[in-house]
Amino acid sequence: MIYNLLLFLLSPLLLLYYAFRLATGKEDPAHWRERWGSYTKAGEGSLRFWVHAVSVGEVMAAKPILRELRKRHPEAFLLLTTTTRGGREVAQGIASASAVAYFPLDFPWAVAQALKAVRPDAVLLMEWEIWPNFLQAAKRQGAKVAVLNGRISDKGLRRGLKAQWMMASGLACVDLFAMQSDEDTRRAGLVGAPPERTRTFGNTKFDESATMLSIEERVKLRAELGIPEGGLVWICGSTRDGKDGIPDEEVLIIEAAKRVRERFPELRLIVAPRHLERVEAVKAHLPGSVQRSKGEHGATLILDTFGELGRAYAIADVAFIGGSLAPWGGQSVFQPLAQGVPALFGPNMNNQRDIAALAISEGAGEQVTDAVGLAEAVCRWLTLSPEEKAQNAQKARGLIERNQGVSVKCLDAVEALLGR
Q1: Is the pTM here over 0.85, yes or no?
Q2: Fold exhibited by the domain 20-208+404-418
Q3: What is the dotted CATH code of the domain comprising 215-402?
Q4: Cβ neighbourhood burial of 103 (10 Å; 0-12, 13-18, 19+)
């Protein structure tokens, strides 16, 4: 009751917010109605699954879930919803999804309309998406509900503790909380998830980690990027803007690169900003930089084409993971490790704490505190012998491979809920 009253009071602001997004081109007018629950009626299938993944990171975690669902149920209807435009762009490239849409706002009438169109047998929420009206309506329809790849960040824990009274009705609707780690399982209990429904499964992103590119593929990719064979490459992926007094991460990266190039003057630096709308600001921070989309080659390259970063890591000698020097919680460590590339990251990794800790403990990653420390770490990794680099590549890839199989375990548990 109080939750819906708050929604009602906030609805004018929400309307203004989305109207502003439409006016500024940040919202896709072709799919505007989906925000309000206007969905195309789901096709018939043996089963209907609704998988929700907020943004790009969650969509990547959902990919192996969707792939395994399609393998088990070839005729099933698989709806993948996202909240962000970037998430939707990635989702549209997932062949195993039957349809892609924006998740409806949690107004009772909007979620009722969307659920009536889809009629899901199971709702699978990636990481932690508790929307009380949606979940209560799904349960009334008879759907089973599971949180998969469950994760509660430090910020999420603080919010969850404060809003426990508001989320209780939604949490009560979830039949299974499949959490990433024992710490996430503990935190789920603190914010109100029933302990008897909460278990540790692991991280599905291990299953999505790509196979290592072959030598031939790496040679081809180097040629495409204008990098000579044997040239040293440092890739900085998913870099973020500044926050809480910390400058834009590219400012710190170029400071570190100047120090590294004193020892390795031929070093090629590749920077991939997390948000492509920042490309012009990133160029301003990186003197003499060129853009990938323009087919340019140079000592400092900006990857500004969507979806290339995962493959690009394969040609790196060392990688830096953005969102970690500025306090954003850290971006994905999985992609460089999957290509056998050591990962460096700053002190702010609470969103990636488990994989970061694993990388450090197994010698496949290192944490730094500032630009000076970053430069020193890059130099250490670049001075390793070919034999040492090969050993570290095995450590990184081995870490990924030993932790795979999570998606299968998650869906075994979902099948049990469905009585199959």
Answers
A1: yes
A2: Rossmann fold (3.40.50)
A3: 3.40.50.2000
A4: buried
